[in-house]
Amino acid sequence: VLTLMDFWFLCPKTVLLRADGELCTGQTTPWECQQCLLNSSHFYHRTQSMLSPSLQSIFWNGVAHIPALARLRGARGMALDIARRKAKMEKEIQLPNLILSHSSFVQQMFEQAHIAPPITHLKNGFNLAWLANFQGKHESAVLRIGYMGQITYIKGVHILIEAFQKANLAERAHLEIWGDLTSDPAYVQTLRQLIQDPDTVKLCGRFQRDELAEVLANIDVLVVPSLWYENAPLVIQEAFAAKTPVIATNLGGMAELIQHEVNGLLFERGDVNDLTTQLQRLSDEPGLVKKLQDGIPTVKTLAEEVTELEALYERLAVTEETVPLQNIGFFTQFCKQIVTLFFWLTMLY
Question: Residues 127, 159: contact at Cβ < 8 Å?
């Protein structure tokens, strides 16, 4: 049984985000995919001025097929045999007896790419034991807007900071950003430079799992401004469990969980002005936050998901044949390595 947590079978970068920041469908040629990876290579950019586009393809395809070159600095991890990868992924994804997806969006993306057999949608379940420590929202004289998650560019935290400051909510609202500030220091420094008033926009750092209830008790509305599709963001359901409405990008797995003006608000991807408008509405429209709170659905528990999984496994155990072990491929690769070593030893001596 395979559960699709991201787009790894379609994209070596897992997030289906092109080097230029645009979204990708995963339905690319090997060279398009290769160029996206190589964009991080300074050596690749230098060769662009020396080789025509057609020669670029030939050159880098050749590098990808020579391990001694593909592993050099400037190519390692970026010069891959993408055609072989695509073929292998299409083969490997056929092996499971059952493929699951936590979001309908991921399910649809794989089905549109025509590389996977039918996929079953199974929503996430959550361990809500932490809710025992949640006693409701703490009182506040201002609207508290929050972010919880990774502090990286693709999560769009800069979009949130810009929109919050442009909304000009003055003393009516505060923004707290929770997440690891050490994983991407350069990006965090960019965020610090964006912040105009440290008293109203705070980078709060990480928190422990047992502190989740306390963090959410001090957040009235959570914002999820991701620039990539996402799958089924856990943070949205955690917010819902604490009766916290969510403003999110109108994209992928986020838009699947948010009903606009019912349990949250949606804004267009990367659109600072649109997010600014949605943030201003929270302050300008009396009763909007309470209305969104009332529209939040019940969060599925981990026990409920386990019950559904058990039923699926029991059905497979009765109706499906066991998948044979795929050891022959590993043996073949081992033999190739031995032959290659023998060849080089012969040449040396």
Answer: no
CA distances from 326 to 9, 97, 272, 332 (A): 18, 14, 49, 11
Q: What is the tens place of the pLDDT at every residue in 233-274?
A: 999 999 999 999 999 999 999 999 999 999 999 999 999 999
pLDDT in tens, 186-213: 999 999 999 999 999 999 999 999 999 9
Distances (CA, A) of 314 to 35, 52, 219, 309, 317: 44, 57, 42, 9, 5
β-partners of residue 121 are: 101
Contact partners, residue 216, CB within 8 Å, separation at least 6? 134, 146, 238, 239, 242, 244
In what side-by-side order are the strands of the sheet with 201-205?
201-205, 173-178, 143-148, 221-224, 246-249, 264-267
Q: Are 4 and 92 in contact (CB under 8 A)?
A: no
